[in-house]
Amino acid sequence: MKSQDIRDKFLKFFESKQHLIVPSAPMVLKDDPTLMFVNSGMAPFKEYFLGNADPKKNRIADSQKCLRVSGKHNDLEEVGYDTYHHTLFEMLGNWSFGDYFKKEAIAWAWELLTEVYGIDKDILYVTVFEGSDDDSLDVDQEAYDIWKQYISEDRILMGNKKDNFWEMGDQGPCGPCSEIHVDIRSAEEKAKVDGKSLVNMDHPQVVEIWNLVFMQYNRKANGSLEILPNKHIDTGMGFERLCMVLQDVQSNYDTDVFTPIIREIETISGKGYGKDDKTDIAIRVISDHVRAVAFSIADGQLPSNTGAGYVIRRILRRAIRYGFTFLNQKEPFIYKLTDTLSKQMGTAFPELKNQKRLIENVIKEEEHSFLRTLDQGLLLLDRVIENSKSETIAGTKAFELYDTYGFPLDLTQLIAKEKGYNIDEAGFNAEMKKQKDRSRAASASETSDWVVLKEDDTEEFIGYDTLVVDVKLTRYRKVTSKKDGEQYQLVFNMTPFYPEGGGQVGDKGSIEASNGEVIYILDTKKENNVIIHIAKNLPEHLNDTFRAEVNEEHRRLSASNHTATHLLHQALRTVLGEHVEQKGSLVRPKSLRFDFSHYAKVEPDQLQQIEDFVNARIKENLPLEEQRNIPMQKALDEGALALFGEKYGDTVRAIRFGQSMELCGGTHVPNTGDIWHFKIKSEGAIAAGIRRIEAITNMVVGDYFETIDKEYQALKEVLKNPNEPVKAVENLQSENADLKKQIEQLLKDKAKNVKGDLKNEIVDVNGVNFIAKKVDLDASGIKDLCFELGGELDNLFAIFGADNNGKALLSCYISKSLVAEKDLNAGTIVRELGKHIQGGGGGQPFFATAGGKNPDGIEEALKAAKNYL
Ligand code: ATP
Ligand code: MG
Question: Which pTM was predicted?
């Protein structure tokens, strides 16, 4: 069965069980501070499990892109070494939100595996939670009793809390789970070792394929469990592992999910897969990592130096390193795999096809720059080895290589070993631990449980229409972190505060109690669909009615920049072409930033056209046309622009100003005229194929012109108020250039005169033309002098000293014939004479110079020169 059919069959099956089939959510999470990437099928549905939003249907199924490379689930170091863990993988899942529970979940899983896919039930094992004393929980008897209707009891195994109790995080919904494992070993192997003893023992052919989680508890901040009013089902099946079983192979990498990419790597590198352990690991690493990186770029997360972008960069660098070390790839090559990947996965994930060019460009550029870094790192390592006093290289040095050049310990060890050195591993690990402790301490925070004042699950955002409203506090919690100290997160029954999102910063403002007490709202964020207001303290009377008021200027300027961002987007697509796609934006009161895909520098005249285009739309006074709840498809049909990597609902908000129409949740000015003016401040590249424009609007433009005008006036004054200031500066510049030329000529003439005088002072010492003298020339003048004299006289040994504004200079010239004959070396001589001027230098045997800080020593140095003859 082809992988494509395996995926389809899963979705069809659950569709037939009344599930709504939804597409995979983007892999990069936007409003969940606890997670960087979706790491399990349930992550995009967290808000439903937490009760913060209602799902479209209480039965859903999908195939979700997951990435396990950071945080609680991190499989990165396994990838390549084993055959069944990936960084990016697809998790097939079916969900019940307060609908069916264990009975159906188990029955359907069994039906799908054994009847639809036809897996022999004698290769399956299932596990059941055995209970745990910490939580005073008993064995999951309910699950056990259901399982035994389908599978013989000797294939039902008990599992501990680590494997069979699933938790989303330190807090929140959780529950026991049942895993389904397969044993795909040969009959011979099975006869030797009982499969039961290999379950959950990291055996490559006895692996977990599906986990059925029965969410029935909520974990509170103090660690205790409470029973959830609504019970949920969350299941996750590894798609690639399922393909391995159904395609009757022994490794995920032998399925058609991976073989086309592996064939391509073989072709490029000329190395075969399946011949040598190290090569195989490298090929698996690369074929896995290119998927993770490509999917991430398609979802809008580019490699960068911080946060999620840094994680992606490290994954790609890991692949580059393996290619470099084990496949001998010294030039970029991973980007070439993009083509095969997008052909193969593009049907299920069209974003790969649509963004192919960008993905290719970004990967190629990253490869280029990291290969350069690798080269530098290798040189550095050579130097470290050269300078090492013993055969053990210090752990701090190895860590430095790791930290700044991305050299992992094993690579450093490998290279060192080839040269007969080893690494102080304990020292390396100690440095690593220090760094981890530092970053943990910096980001550590503690969050209390919510204190619920009023049950109210539909918190309303009314900030599009008003900035002031009376609100009630419905819940709050305390967050303590090193960075911000103690803060409170407040949730109201409704709110005018816009939460950070869509690139726009969150609102600031205040709430005022009836007794006049004012609490400042420092920022507003959205977390799992709840709008959170951040304050330094709690109001005294929690049940009061508060007058919530958004800081009007902060909001107005943000809105002005947000609307300008839409107009800029339209301008870019008009002036540069329809290929321009938004790749990121930052909208705040003082400025806006817009990142977009484009493959060349934006020329000054194009920038001018773009700016003019936006300002023309501003002058047209285009009114805001807002459609709050229109069906997604309708909005797209009307020409609205949607962003890749953004999660949209069925109904969307569409924002139109004239011909610009975008899906957007941000706040906007009522009329483009309110922007006043738009001014681009800068344009440049931030990654391969990605450009960034920074611009300002509104009164910030006024301030900007004001400042420029002041500088301009000051400049004019310095120039004595000429009628044409530009011309005046140009005149100054050309005058300056003329003067420079004259000075150069004068210096040359002077050198000539000096030469004439000096020639008379040359004396014969044992057949050598010798001179040692202080001259009034600069370094290049002395050099010219030496070579001219050398050209005119044979057997010349000349030493000149000069005091250039307090800096001492010594130059030594020795005719080549003398160098050989008398075994003289100008480099050695200046180095030795350099001591007199407290300096050093060097050069070639026939010409060398030294610089020093003691001009008083020049005479002495010159005197000493004669000793060399
Ligand atoms: P394992 O113990 O094998 O790492 P897990 O307990 O971490 O698995 P879950 O978190 O329960 O797995 O995820 C559900 C399913 O997703 C697993 O049964 C497995 O099929 C699949 N899966 C988990 N991690 C990976 C991975 N890194 N690569 C590929 N598939 C995975
Ligand atoms: Mg795991």
Answer: 0.78
